[in-house]
């Protein structure tokens, strides 16, 4: 099994691969927040969303000796969570005359959009952690918090020109780290 860096892909020829407790813990801490967020967007109940994700993680742990049968653990978990959320909604839709989430349960495009959004945010914030400290501060204040250059300069005790150059440097580094896919570039251009 490859080490966990975003996507876990299992060698399809090695059906005897097992999931170690350490690898499971890594997967859990890396994916739990995103899986929970997606589950919550569907069921709109914190407790239920938590239970759905915990059930998905438990299902993965119970299959740890047969992990070689799962080619992509991340996709597997997203599917298990989505199916758990949809099952919950179907069950509770029968109890209620209206759809409690306002989402058409059969509309999987909405869920896929959430997943893509979450992945983009996770990739962006992962890349942000790798930026030099000043670049990261300037990028966050400028692009995320939308603070004017002058205010950033005052807060960080640097000139407006330094703010501009650090922001440009951060964007350039992020483009290099995140790749040149049109989705990433569109995301970065709209963010800044």
TrEMBL record:
Residues 30-94 form the RNA polymerase sigma-70 region domain. One of its GO terms (molecular function) is DNA binding. One of its GO terms (biological process) is DNA-templated transcription initiation. It comes from the Bacteria. Gene3D superfamilies: 1.10.1740.10, Winged helix-like DNA-binding domain superfamily/Winged helix DNA-binding domain. Residues 126-171 form the RNA polymerase sigma factor 70 region 4 type domain. The keyword Transport does not apply. Keywords: Sigma factor, Transcription, Transcription regulation. Pfam families: Sigma70_r2, Sigma70_r4_2. Belongs to the sigma-70 factor family. ECF subfamily. PANTHER family: RNA POLYMERASE ECF-TYPE SIGMA FACTO, RNA POLYMERASE SIGMA-70 FACTOR ECF SUBFAMILY. This is RNA polymerase sigma-70 factor, ECF subfamily.
């Amino acid at each position: 099994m490859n080490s966990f860096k975003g996507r876990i892909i299992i060698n399809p020829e090695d059906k005897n691969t097992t999931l170690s407790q350490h690898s499971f813990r890594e997967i859990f801490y890396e994916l739990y927040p995103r899986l929970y967020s997606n589950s919550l967007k569907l069921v709109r109940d914190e407790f239920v969303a938590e239970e759905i994700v915990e059930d998905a993680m438990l299902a993965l742990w119970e299959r740890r000796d047969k992990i070689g049968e799962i080619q992509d653990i991340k996709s597997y978990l997203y599917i298990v969570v989505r199916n758990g959320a949809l099952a919950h909604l179907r069950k509770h839709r029968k109890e209620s005359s209206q759809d409690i989430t306002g989402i058409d349960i059969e509309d999987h495009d909405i869920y896929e959009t959430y997943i893509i959004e979450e992945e983009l945010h996770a990739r962006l914030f992962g890349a942000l952690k790798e930026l030099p400290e000043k670049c990261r501060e300037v990028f966050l204040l400028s692009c995320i918090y939308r603070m004017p250059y002058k205010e950033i300069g005052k807060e960080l005790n640097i000139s407006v020109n330094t703010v501009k150059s650090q922001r440009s440097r951060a964007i350039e580094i992020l483009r290099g780290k995140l790749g040149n896919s049109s989705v990433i570039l569109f995301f970065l251009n709209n963010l800044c």
